[in-house]
Design a protein that fits this description.
It is built from 9 helices and 8 strands. By secondary structure, it is an alpha/beta fold. The longest helix has 28 residues. The two termini are 37 Å apart. 17% of the residues are buried.
């Protein structure tokens, strides 16, 4: 009750002063405005108040003797789930570079999309007096222009992907040509080679050899400095092209260093962690490793069931034991 009370005050402060546009409580999964966040906390505060004063008379689904077991089970489930998502890739992907997304189309602004609205004001001076005007009340030529101010009044449509850009060592922009490739392309993603895991180097080189044999493209994207790139090539024997991209974009694309993305015509067909890279033999088609674009809601429901089914089994087993004791 104390905790949610303090958080409600914090969200009230955010609602009034707007230091941030989104609380970020749910990451990329759910975006709440400051008003929605405050209402959410009011609901939780109401629940906390009710429970605080009705706790003694509330029916307990789980007996006191089982509290420790349920608590330990919940902690271990959360710990295992977090480690799994950290070691491999997140089971549910809410980012703009998820499987099934066409990067080129995700960067476009559709026809008829809302455009941003700005309020423009002008500072002018006359007889030593400065005054601000808008377009509607702009004065005559006896005033001297000083400056212009533009303020964003309403945001327009923002495409899911806005900052994907690839260049080579000479600074040439390769973005359009790489995304327009109608064949299969494998992109090795590594924001920084210095921090990349070198354990799967053999698997990476094997995938590059497979692509060379089948006339597919294979290249790496990184934000590393040239000395780091040279060191990576020296230690791994990399024979594939290495291009450059923004580090934040690369971390958004794959939560692994390194990671792998399979593209076809700019569409993402698969994503893998460096701990779980696919293997392809000479007689195996690249189509065999294409992933399905899973529905995030279905994945979340599965995760909830993975947690609840054992928990319900423990609960009913305890009830049965207590009734027949």
């Amino acid at each position: 009750l104390i905790f949610i009370g303090l958080m409600t005050l914090v969200t009230l402060f955010i609602l009034i002063w707007h230091p941030v546009s989104d609380c970020g409580c749910f990451g990329d999964a759910i975006h709440l405005t400051n008003g929605q966040t405050f209402v959410k906390n009011l609901v939780l505060l109401g629940c906390a108040i009710v429970y605080r004063y009705t706790y003694a008379t509330t029916h307990k689904l789980i007996g006191v003797s089982l509290h420790w077991l349920v608590s330990m089970y919940s902690i271990l489930f959360i710990l295992f789930f977090s480690l799994y998502n950290n070691y491999y890739l997140p089971l549910a992907d809410f980012r703009p570079y998820k499987v099934g997304v066409n990067i080129s189309k995700a960067m476009l602004i559709p026809e008829g999309a809302a455009e941003p609205e700005y309020e423009t004001t002008f500072w002018l001076e006359k007889n030593g007096r400065r005054q601000r005007f808008t377009i509607d009340n702009y004065p005559d030529s006896t005033w001297t222009y000083i400056s212009t101010e533009k303020k964003l009044v309403k945001e327009g449509y923002v495409p899911p992907i806005t900052d994907f850009s690839v260049c080579d060592t000479l600074g040439n922009d390769l973005t359009d040509s790489l995304l327009a490739d109608t064949g299969y392309t494998m992109m090795l993603i590594s924001p920084t080679f210095d921090q990349a895991n070198r354990v799967p180097v053999d698997e990476i080189n094997a995938l590059n050899d497979y692509c060379l044999d089948h006339k597919y493209r294979f290249y790496a994207l990184t934000a590393s400095s040239m000395p780091s790139v040279d060191k990576w090539i020296y230690y791994t024997g990399a024979e594939y092209p290495i291009y450059f991209c923004d580090a934040t974009v690369l971390k958004t694309m794959v939560r692994s260093n390194p990671g792998l993305i399979l593209l076809h015509g700019g569409t993402i067909l698969g994503k893998w962690s460096g701990h779980d890279l696919p293997t392809l033999s000479d007689g195996q088609s690249v189509k065999s490793i294409i992933q399905d674009g899973d529905n995030n809601l279905r994945i979340l429901l599965k995760i909830i069931l993975y947690y609840l089914i054992p928990l319900l089994f423990i609960t009913f087993a305890n009830k049965f034991w207590m009734n027949h004791k």
